[in-house]
Amino acid sequence: MKVGVIGCGAIANIIIDHIQPKDNIEFKYFFDKDTEKAEELTEKTNGILCENLSEMLNDVDLVLEAASQEFLKQYGVEIVKHANLMNMSIGALMDEKFRKELIQTSKNNHTNIYAPSGAVIGVDGLKAACIGEISSLTLTTRKSPKSLGIETDKCETLFKGKASEAVVKYPKNMNVAATLSLSCKRDIDVEVIVDPSVDRNIHEVHAIGSFGEFKTITCNQPIKANPKTSELAALSAIKKLKSLNKQFHVGT
Ligand SMILES: NC(=O)C1=CN([C@@H]2O[C@H](COP(=O)(O)OP(=O)(O)OC[C@H]3O[C@@H](n4cnc5c(N)ncnc54)[C@H](O)[C@@H]3O)[C@@H](O)[C@H]2O)C=CC1
Ligand SMILES: O=C([O-])CC(=O)C(=O)O
């Protein structure tokens, strides 16, 4: 599988470091608006540096988007006309008009869109549970001021509302709210808390429905290079990428 990478930051670097020759995944093209970042990964992999997206589109099986919601909204549709897409900035897909256009274009062009479960656990169970009725689904995210990119010494709720609003207000911190929402087709209830006493990115999910009830707490290790982002997000993409070459699939 030949892959082009858009966004050569924290997530992309972890992914590249974990993929081995036996995985049969070739990271060939790299693009970042910060050319130095793209150059670093190009050198590391002996790949090809791109000046724009179109330079890679006709020669890749899959584009890995690890850049931003803004990039995905601008170029996602163009990508799926040519290649499969793995997108990390899933918050962009809470925009229904964009999501529908992206999915319809991928259908028309026989490509696929993969959104890894990212920095939160429980997506597998939630996907199964929502075959029945879900009566309540909430996400409470607790991060340090550093991870939220603010300065404060007070623990407080910064946001309470729907996932669709949270991804707009916190585009670099609330992709998990979109993943949970889209995995069960509802705009879930979200609370964002800044807490100076924590050094993890913590996501608590509480689901109640006809299946019963579950509560999960994911206490994520932030990535040093970008503490807004949790290591698990990159690891979930690695697992998803590897699964695309496999015959045996465990879990939903
Ligand atoms: N699905 C999930 O659970 C999670 C998703 N994310 C999202 O994944 C994406 C990547 O995260 P990180 O690697 O931590 O971010 P990062 O900030 O470390 O790296 C992103 C890279 O993309 C580049 N970039 C941004 N916009 C661009 C554009 N329009 N064109 C070209 N390059 C562009 C930046 O220059 C940067 O080098 C972000 O959108 C982030 O919010 C992050 C954590 C969890
Ligand atoms: O990495 C995390 O903990 C979550 C995050 O930033 C996001 O969902 O955008």
What does the model show?
The protein contains 10 helices and 13 strands. With 252 residues, it is an alpha/beta fold. The strands form 3 sheets. Strands 3-2-1-4-5-6 form a 6-stranded parallel β-sheet, sandwiched between helices. A 5-stranded mixed β-sheet has the order 8-9-7-10-11. Strand 12 and strand 13 form a beta hairpin. Helix 4 packs parallel to helix 5 and helix 8 packs antiparallel against helix 9. The longest helix is centred in the N-terminal third of the chain and has 14 residues, at 69-82. It starts with a strand and ends in a 9-residue tail after the last helix. Bound molecules: 1,4-dihydronicotinamide adenine dinucleotide and oxaloacetate ion (OAA). 1,4-dihydronicotinamide adenine dinucleotide (NAI) binds at residues 6-12, 32-34, 37, 66-71, 88-90, 118-119, 172, 175-176, 179, 226, 229, 233.
